[in-house]
Amino acid sequence: MKNLITVINKSYVAIIIGIIGGYLGTLINLPLPWLLGSLGLNLIVSFTRFEVKFSPKLLNPIFIFIGIILGGTLNVTLLYKIHLWIFSSIAMLIYVIISTILVSYYFIKICKFEKIVAILASLPGAFVPISAALLELKQKHDSKKVIIPQATRVIFIVCSLPIIFVKNQGFVEINSFGYEHVYNLNYFIEIIFLCILCFVGAKLVKKLKVPSPTLVAAMLISGILYTFEIVNSRFPDIFINITFIFLGTALGSRLNGLKYKELLFFAFHGIIITIILMIISAVTAYCLQIFFGFNFLPTFLSFAPGGIHETVIISVAYNIDPIFVSYHHFLRIFLIVLFLPFLIKRFNS
C-alpha cells in the first residue's frame, strides 16, 4: 500500500498534465490526441524549471494493455485473405529493412546520432512499441532524439494522408472506427482472461531476456486469440485513451531540460525523414501495382508509416478493405517488435 501511495505521489502531477494535454489534443484534432497531446503538454512543461516525474512502476501494466490493443486490430477475416497478400507481405519486410537502413544512415551522418538512437528514431512506424522499448533503456538523455522525430513522423503523415485522399478521391466524411461493445459477464471474463494470459506470457518471455517482454508477449498472444476468435472482447475507446495518456505522460516526463533549439532541430529532421519514408512507401506501392496488380492508393495507405487506427479510419471512409490496411500495419509493427530485441542487444553497448 505504501508503495502504491509513493507511486501516485510521484506521478500524479505528470498524469494530470497528461490528461489536460490529451483533452486539448482532441480539441485541435491532433493525430493520436490522447497520446501526443499528453506528450506535448508535458513537453511544454519541460521547457520550464518545473520538473515532472513519472514512476516506471506504472509501465508494465501499460505495456500489457498496449500489446492487447495492437493485437485487437486483427480478426478471423485475415485467415481467409492473407494468402492473397504474400507478395505485399514480403515487400513489407523489404520496406522495413531498407527504410531503417537509409534513415538511420541519415541520422548517423547528418545528425551525429549514436547507432542505437539512430535506429530507434528511424524505424518506419510502431511509435508505441518503440516508445515502450525506449522507456526501458537507461540513456534518458537520448530520449528526445527518438521521441521528437517519431512523433513528428506520426503527426506529419496522419495529417497529410487525408489531404492526399481528398485530392485523388474527393471529400468523404471520416468518422470514428471501432467495435460494438456489449458489457455483459462474458465480456469481462474474456478481458480478464486475456490480461492474465498476457501477464503470464510476459513472465515467460522475460526469462528469455527479451527486451520489452511485456509488450511482445501481450501483442503476440492477443493477436493470435483475436485472429482465431478465441476472444472477441476488446478494450473500449475510453480505456485505450487512458492507456495512451499514461504512455504519453511517461514519454513527456523524460524530456525535462529540453531546449527550444533541440526541439526545432529534431522536428526539422523528423520532417525530412518522414518525406523519405513517404517516398519509399509510394515507390513500394507503385512496384506492387506494376508487378503484382495491387491498387496503388490502398497499398500506399497500408505502407505509409502513420498511426494504425487513423489509417484504418481512412480506409473505411473510402471503401478500402480495412483488414488489408490493418494487416499490413500490424505486420510492420510485428516485424519491428521482432527486430527490436536483436537491434537493442546488438547496438546498445
Structural class: mainly alpha
- Report strand %: under 5%
Number of helices: 15
- Cα distance spanning the termini: 37 Å
Describe the 3D structure:
The structure is a single chain. With 349 residues, the protein is an all-alpha fold. The chain has one domain. The chain is built from 15 helices and no strands. It has helices at 2-27, 33-46, 59-71, 77-81, 86-110, 115-122, 127-135, 143-169, 185-206, 213-227, 237-252, 260-292, 296-303, 308-317, 322-347. Helix 7 (127-135) packs antiparallel against helix 8 (143-169) and helix 14 (308-317) runs antiparallel to helix 15. Residues 172-177 have low confidence and may be disordered.
